[in-house]
Amino acid sequence: MWKHGTVVPRICSLVLSILRSLVLNLPLTNEWPWLRDVITGPLEKNTFKPPKTPTKTAQQRGILHKVGRDGKGMAEQVLYIGIDLGTFRSVMVSSDSHEEEELTVIGTPKDPIARNFLKRDVLFGEEALKNRLALNLFRPLELGVIKDTQEDREFIAHFITHLIGLSDPEEYDRVVAVIGAPAEASYVDKTAIFDAAAGSVNAAMIISEPFAVAYALDMIEHTLVIDIGAGTADLCRVYGTIPGPDDQMHTGHAGDFIDREMIKNIQSKFNGAQITKDMARRWKEQYSFVGTHTPENPIMVDFSIDGKAMNLDITDCIQAACEAIVDPIVENVKQLISGSNPEYHDEFRRNMVLAGGGSGIKGLGAMIERRLSDMGDVNVHVVDDPVRLGAMGGLRLAMEVPEEMWSSLTLATR
Predict the structure, then answer these.
(1) For residue 201, is pLDDT > 60?
(2) Can you tell me the distance from the alpha carbon of 19 to that of 210, in angstroms, rounded to the nearest whole number?
(3) Quick one: which of 52, 91, 120, 328 could link to 391 by a disulfide (CB 3.0–4.6 Å)?
């Protein structure tokens, strides 16, 4: 068993092992497995290996879509993501059925005590608002674009990384995303969004939000989309290809503008009225309307006047604020139609889509039709799901874009 010349060292080693086993109360056979065989006889291999625990596959854990473009599966697992990056609210949907809405707000602790209390350096969305007294709050988008500061560019990068992280991208070999941007986002804005996504995805594409809406609805043949968000109302001619700069316009007369007008109107009507932006936004989301859909009962709300609790009628204040966005939108619609190929004017007039959060204003579609009646027969279609539609269009485009097109998008490739 031992070769010549190794007897003494082996005996010394065995004696040391015996002493160590006695002191530490360890089985001697741990260090000298051959001794176990001498004492007990040879054992079958793998006798003491624990049974393997079956590992759940990603599909068994609830992931629904891990397929290649041929539908038969691929060695490389790809996750497709669509994002609607909004001034007030952003939405992320993915090919494995994740759907997340997040307020586009970021919070950082005000001081070390707040940092220890929150146990995080950055909070997002509703959680940031919930803890806003202990945080410095930032809204990195203004009028639909990233604010022009290094701090806000860093915050939007954190926010996009957070949104993508909600889709569990670590389960996949490759992640690609289509991100909706405002209709007239500049090259600088798009580059900033690309750079923000670069650390989380393998490839990204930036498209205009109105085009994403049209793509989700399968209405990309001679359609005019009016997408009213919080910061901007984006308008876009869509005719079977990705729109160019001349096909798109935007105006700042949108959701935030309505909030400001509502506050101004109420304070003009009721001297000393104390109204916050959040109060105005809640009333807008609950009661907004225009003259083509007036409510049966007056809109009565609670607020303070010089600290005194009041319940007052703000019906006319809401109507005037909501109708203030109509004329600028109508003027932009007329410019986009008149500037298009005359052979397709009729189709653009008949195929208008009203989308975004502002599409929820009661009667707005009918009022736009009325204001455009001097151009001929006009049809405005109001979407059913304004919140998720842009993100769904981005997801659909991500899954249908040819692979060679993705491979050429290297700006945001890791």
Answers:
(1) yes
(2) 80
(3) 91
Taking 60 as the threshold, does the pLDDT of residue 328 lie above it?
A: yes
Exposed e or buried b per residue across 109-134, where buried means at least 16 C-beta atoms within 10 angstroms of its C-beta: beeeebeeebeeebbbbebbeebeeb
3-class state of residue 111 by DSSP: coil
- How confident is the model over 199-214, as a mean pLDDT? 88
d(CA 401, CA 407): 11
pLDDT for position 10: 56
pLDDT value at 5 more than 60: no
How far apart CA 252 and CA 254 sit, in angstroms, is 6
Per-residue pLDDT at 230 exceeds 50:
yes
Q: CA of 247: how far to CAs of 57, 149, 241, 332, in Å?
A: 46, 29, 11, 11
From the list 253, 146, 252, the residue with the least C-alpha distance to 190 is: 146
Question: Are the C-beta atoms of 353 and 213 separated by less than 8 Å?
Answer: yes
User: How far is it, in rounded angstroms, from Cα 399 to Cα 89?
Assistant: 24
Three-class DSSP labels, 352-375: EEEECHHHHCECHHHHHHHHCHHH
The DSSP annotation for 32-65 comes to: -HHHHHHHH----TTTTPPPPPPPPPTTTTT---
CA distance linking residue 204 with residue 207, whole number of Å = 10
Coil, helix or strand for 143? Answer: coil
User: Could you tell me the pLDDT band of residue 36, with boundaries at 50, 70 and 90?
Assistant: very low
Q: 234 — phi, psi (to 5°)? A: -100, 135
- Mean pLDDT, the chain, whole residue set: 81
User: What is the pairing mode between strands 141-142 and 174-181?
Assistant: unpaired
At residue 124, what is the residue type? F
- pTM of this structure: 0.75
Q: Is 157 exposed, middle or buried (0-12, 13-18, 19+ CB in 10 A)?
A: buried
**End-to-end Cα spacing for the chain:** 57
Return d(Cα 386, Cα 375) in angstroms, integer.
27
